[in-house]
Amino acid sequence: MAETAEPCLQDQLLPGGAPIARDLALGLLRRELGRMQGQVQRAFEAREIHGLAAARRLGHHMDAMMLVIQDYAAAMVPSASGLRSVDYALLATGGYGRGVLAPHSDIDLLFLTEREPGPRTRRMIEFMLYLLWDLGLKVGHATRSPKECITEGLRDATILTALVDARFLAGDDRLFAEFQVEFAKLREEGGLAPFLAAKRAERATRHARYGESPFLVEPHVKEGRGGLRDLQTLYWLARYAFGVSRMPELVGPDSPGGGLLTEGEARAVKRAWDFLWTLRFHLHYVTGRAEERLTFDLQPVVAARMGYTRHGSQDGAERLMKHLFLTAREVVRLSRVLEPAIERAALGPPATRRGGDEGLAELGLAFADGKLVAAPPDRDFGREPILMLRIVKAARDRCLDIHPLAIRALIRHSRRADRLRGDPEASAILIDLLMGKDAAKWLRLLNEAGFLGRFLPEWARIVGLMQFDTYHVFTVDEHTIEAIGILKQVEQGELHEIAPVATELMGQLQSRRALFVATLLHDIAKGRGGDHSEIGARLAQEICPRLGVSAEETETVSWLVLHHLLVSQTAFKRDIEDPKTILDIADQVQSPERLRLLLVLTVADMRAVGPRVWNAWKATLLREVYWRVSEVLAGGMTVPERDVRVARAKEAAAAMLPGFSKAETEMFMGLGYPGYWLSFDAETHARHAAIIREAEAEQAPLTVRTRVLADRGVTEVTIYCSDHPGLFSRISGALAVAGASIVDARIHTLTNGMALDTFWVQDSAGGLFDAPHRLARLAVLIEQALSGRLKLAAEIRKVRREPARLAAVTVPPRVVVDNFASNTHTLIEVNGRDRPGLLHDVTAAISEQGLQIASAHITTYGVRAVDVFYVKDVFGLKVENERKLGPLRAALLEALTPPDAPGGGPSPYREAAAPS
């Protein structure tokens, strides 16, 4: 293809040997570039070739074009004697030097000169570069002599790495030969150690920026851990140490280093290269740019292009991501296998000694370079799989490192872990690692090595398993290990300021082992379809005996897995002021010990989801649930005490009104219905009394007060005004326009017909909404919304939308009506895609159905909104008639449907009637 096109293009640019005009040449080159790129794209998208072959084909085509461009440049910038020869060597470096190019890759060139380039050479180089830039190519370039290359390479590891890949394209090959001699001398004299140290430092910096974990749900395919750059690092190390150009050259006893890779590992390298390059090509073609991050919006598109379809409970995007995560883990494993092998082959074998620790010798372990290895020559992981666990435990107990060669052996023999299933010593060590110091570090090592999936076959099913949402940051296995790490932080008191109650309770637990095992297994059934809590509880009953867990602890573990979402769902989706809510959870828990276990597990689970999930408000709600249920379990609350509690609340409030006359106090005491008195503490009641007295004295139609509660991570907004249908909807719309996100709300109509509504809000990122100018604007927007001067529909549309990358995450709308969770109210739970003004739409729909909202509980999981409303009809009764519930569900489903979705209503934001 390129071979036949090249002479044709050469003849067109230099007909009869004379160059054509530059603008004509540029047009011909553009057409040729487009033709060759289109040819590769068509072959790739027809699946005639995969990523690596496509990358090589693009590199080959670019080689041909560079030769033509250099000949044309030589003709356009002739020497004084009229000769067209060049006095430099044109080299490809970087990825282009390896002969591979992605559709939108940079082209790295090195113009190698013998001395300071003369005027003609500078003009030629400039001519070529401008021509390449005008073609729309991104070109990295340098002009150096061979000695300057070495000097600059010693100063900058990035330049040195680019030189490792240097490949001759055209020009003076003597200069390239001279460069090769100088570079070989550098490698021989300097050795591998400086280059290895530089690449390790560079990798650490890169991982810190693009992701330390290979299991991030929006991974960077090129620079993230387990990505293409990690594979390229292995190639650079092998090439620098041994001069090889392909990884299979490291297979076999006669290869450099004596066989650093097995044939199976060489095949794994090839599979990973090809898969990652294929993924990268799709990313470039789909986005039309050098996009390297596989974001949520791109995952379904790329999955479809690569032929991934739904299989069982997993859709195509989830199957693609699991393949990617398993590939990333394979790259991590290959790095752990090959890098130490290259280091040792280049720098010499480790000095192994057995002495110094009698206990180690009894375990079958020894020292090598001060690090742990299996004791040679008769002890190895293949013959004694238990050594794989012993070495990890010994490293932890003695605060030692495991030798890289031992980690290499652990990875290579991890499949032998299945022989240890049911082995008492193996189970005891694993439980000890789970509960001991740095548990997450050692479990992560065992997981990445493949040991955990072999030892626990149920675990293998969650390795690399992602959930296609924007709530979970990690895959299920990584999330679980993260949760165990957080559990250890709680136990060691490191999270005392963030989770003080959980930290205190941790020291009171009787069932510590059950808690750690339950954390390990709490998501073990994800990806199987159905309720993962119920399935996981059954699996726990099978797994625990294999791990040597007693029957009593097994029951506790199974119960914790079954109910591990109970506390969080109650805190975020139920009115914890409703006695029935607390009594129901107390009936489920029944014992203070189980309540303590559930709270600590909930804290670890939530904080392990992602950095933005936990906040002070959620911590406050969890604590409230814990203390209230704890009170019930101690015999401190029953339903018949409601009237007594109301009376006590009024007495406490009255005691805090010393500046009130007797008439004013009696007037305030007569305003609130029982639900109001049970919803707030005495201090808040006193603050409300002051607001109401001031408003009545000034005859103010609207009073808005804000209070920043920094310790709870929210701002409290209190609104006192005349009650009317649609009030909640208009206020929530105004808050959305102000940029405030509602996390909870209490809606109270007083006996004088006025509404006393309290909203707790955060900013859109889950932080404090506390800037003075934003609070002032919020009050103005509420007044404008209630007076009808603020056009909510138009203003909400102006609110910043979510990033485009999240648009592909679908959230089917769902409405659940529950008449059993409360004795006095109907609960309406709506699930849908979050968007600016969603709460405005939903509450407008509820109001239009003639229902009154008593309280609202707002929770967001990524792009999923889960909002729960406690409602009554106009007569103050539950809504139980299906003739009313049917239209209510239909109206809410319409409100949940995004305006731009198929079937979305013509009026995306309904306006509630303004008060007359």
TrEMBL record:
Family annotation (Gene3D superfamilies): 3.30.70.260, cca-adding enzyme, domain 2
Annotated InterPro entries: ACT-like_dom_sf (IPR045865), ACT_dom (IPR002912), HD/PDEase_dom (IPR003607), HD_domain (IPR006674), NT_sf (IPR043519), PII_UdlTrfase/GS_AdlTrfase (IPR013546), Polymerase_NTP_transf_dom (IPR002934), UTase/UR (IPR010043)
PROSITE patterns, per the entry: ACT, HD
Family per similarity comment: Belongs to the GlnD family.
Domain comment in the entry: Has four distinct domains: an N-terminal nucleotidyltransferase (NT) domain responsible for UTase activity, a central HD domain that encodes UR activity, and two C-terminal ACT domains that seem to have a role in glutamine sensing.
Domain ACT: 716-797, 827-908
Keyword Ribonucleoprotein: no
Keyword Magnesium: yes
Phylogenetic lineage: Bacteria, Pseudomonadati, Pseudomonadota, Alphaproteobacteria, Acetobacterales
Function text: Modifies, by uridylylation and deuridylylation, the PII regulatory proteins (GlnB and homologs), in response to the nitrogen status of the cell that GlnD senses through the glutamine level. Under low glutamine levels, catalyzes the conversion of the PII proteins and UTP to PII-UMP and PPi, while under higher glutamine levels, GlnD hydrolyzes PII-UMP to PII and UMP (deuridylylation). Thus, controls uridylylation state and activity of the PII proteins, and plays an important role in the regulation of nitrogen metabolism.
Record-given protein name: Bifunctional uridylyltransferase/uridylyl-removing enzyme
